[in-house]
Write a structure and sequence with these properties.
Length: about 210
């Protein structure tokens, strides 16, 4: 009896150290979880929120603790509930696109989801990982607008150059003053084309990472 009590006293400090180590590991894991750029939501086996990181809270503009709530209670988004239902049936869903309406601008998300299996192979929950594609979508729209504008800008000087060259061929070349004026205009539009092409080359180098 005395020996057991003595052993218990010896192991008390060790147990305290183990508890501190475990607490430190949990804190490190939580810090790592919250440092992720992707938004992560973990549901338990009953479909209730078990864990959510700070990135997910920012993406969905959440205030307060949503743990213990269902997806509909926490987010009030039928698209997310539909994704959860599809994941439970298929086991996983990749590249699900989700548009979140906002007062300033719509937020575009790409969501990957998968069922979480336990050691026995049975489903124990579900995980959602959200990637913010808003900036990428905005850049794509800007690029499309730029290409449309450049196409128009290229067409204008080309048509002007072609028109003046045809006029010179038709006889204006025999009038020195008129020919000089036309050639100066052609040179101006040729310079404009050069500047546009340089802009396109700069954008191409930016996209390729050369500059």
């Amino acid at each position: 009896m005395f020996q057991r009590e003595a052993e218990a006293e010896v192991f008390k400090p060790l147990r305290r150290v183990v508890r501190k180590i475990r607490g430190r590991e949990q804190a490190q894991q939580l810090a790592l979880f919250n440092s992720m750029r992707e938004g992560v939501l973990l549901l338990d086996g009953e479909g209730r929120v078990r864990l959510v990181n700070q990135a997910f809270e920012r993406l969905f503009n959440l205030n307060g603790d949503i743990r213990g709530r269902t997806v509909m209670e926490a987010l009030r988004l039928h698209q997310v509930q539909e994704l959860v239902n599809r994941t439970l049936v298929n086991g996983q869903v990749e590249e699900f696109e989700l548009e979140l309406p906002s007062l300033e601008t719509n937020r575009s998300l790409q969501v990957n989801s998968a069922v979480v299996l336990g050691p026995d192979g049975r489903p124990q929950g579900l995980i959602l990982v959200c990637h913010d594609l808003t900036r990428l979508k905005q850049l794509e729209n800007t690029r499309r607008e730029f290409v449309a504008n450049v196409s128009h800008e290229l067409r204008t000087p080309l048509s002007m150059i072609k028109g003046y060259v045809e006029t010179l061929i038709d006889g204006a070349k025999d009038q020195p003053e008129v020919a000089t004026k036309f050639l100066q205009t052609i040179e101006k539009h040729a310079d404009r084309l050069t500047f546009l092409i340089e802009d396109l080359l700069t954008i191409s180098r930016l996209e390729s990472g050369q500059i």
